[in-house]
Structure formats: C-alpha cells, structure tokens
Design brief:
single chain; 191 residues; mainly alpha; 9 helices; 83% helix; DedA_domain; transmembrane helix; VTT_dom
C-alpha cells in the first residue's frame, strides 16, 4: 500500500498538472486548507531537481497570495476567521495571541512562517488583529520564501541520496514521517 501511494505521489510530481496543483495547495494552505505544500514540493523537487528553485518560487508566490486571502478573512470576515481558528483548536487562545501580536507581531509572523505550524493561523490572526498589511505581506514573502527555497536547496543538493535511502526502507521512513506529523500536531495543540 505504501509503495502505491509513494509511486502515485511521484507520478503526480512528474505530471503536467503538478505545478498548478502545487500553486493551488500553496495558496489554499495559507488561508484555510489543512495540507502543507511541502507534501507536493518535496516529491516534485526530487522528481525534477533541475526545477527546484522554480517550484520554490511558485510555492512562495502562491503562499503569499493565499496569506493575503487569510488576512482578508480575518480582517473582513472576522466571524469566519474565528470559526476557522476554532476548527483548528486555537480560538481559546485568542486573547493571549492578541497580546503576543501587539508586542511581537513581526517576529510571530517570521518565526511561525518557517515552521510546520499551519500558516493560516498566522494569516487569519494578522487580519483579525489588523496587523500592518504592507509589513505583513513583506514578512510573509521573507518567511515563506526562506522556508521553500531552503527546502529546495536541501533537496536539490542531497535529495537523490536521500531518495535512494527512502526507497530502500520505505516502511521505516513512513513510520518516521508519521511520527514527525503526529509530533507536529501535538506541538501545535500545545501552543
């Protein structure tokens, strides 16, 4: 089963629809979609290392545009933004987050944008708290670009060796990946 899923992801990564799909996932993840673009970005870079930085650029631009939508949801549709935050289990930390944003908003955006924490939390909260919009866009471009281009550089440089290792021990790496995902979810719930 894992082999079929693995092969399917790489087939999609090589398909003519891969780049538009990556853009859609990157855009929606920054505003409301739960799946991070790394799920597509990694296999796409491994399938086509020569296009690593192009894919990172697509991810960055689409993510920043999606972040603007997330900001607009928080700013103009605050009730919808609060519903999304509640769905993600973060509505109860609203007041603490507001104080944190008022004191260190730029750092919150920069740091959280580099982590696997769902970026939509930051974009929607930035709109709700009416964070300075031009600064928000600039910070999103820096943090998301930094994350995706760093991922592209690592995978372009060491990806083929990593890919060979993963393919030899797919089950073991799947368990490790699942453990990382569960750990990230637990960490997000604790924040």
């Amino acid at each position: 089963m894992l082999r079929k899923l693995y092969d399917w992801v790489f087939a999609l990564a090589r398909s003519k629809h891969a780049t538009p799909a990556l853009a859609v996932v990157s855009f929606t993840e920054s505003s409301f979609f739960p799946i991070p673009p790394d799920v597509m970005l990694g296999p796409m870079i491994l399938a086509r290392p020569d296009r690593a930085y192009f894919y990172a650029g697509v991810c960055t631009v689409a993510s920043v545009l999606g972040a603007m939508l997330g900001y607009a949801i928080g700013y103009f549709l605050t009730d919808v933004g609060m519903m999304i935050l509640a769905w993600l289990g973060k509505a109860d930390t609203f007041e603490a987050s507001k104080a944190l944003f008022q004191q260190h908003g730029a750092w919150v955006i920069l740091i959280k944008g580099l982590t696997p924490i769902p970026f939509k939390l930051i974009t929607i909260a930035s709109g709700i708290f009416q964070f300075n919009f031009p600064l928000f866009v600039a910070l999103c471009a820096v943090t998301r670009g930094g994350r995706f281009f760093a991922e592209a550089w690592v995978l372009k440089r060491w990806g083929p060796a990593m890919l060979e290792m993963v393919e030899k021990r797919l089950a073991m790496w799947s368990i490790i990946g699942l453990a990382v995902i569960v750990g990230a979810i637990v960490a997000v719930k604790m924040l």
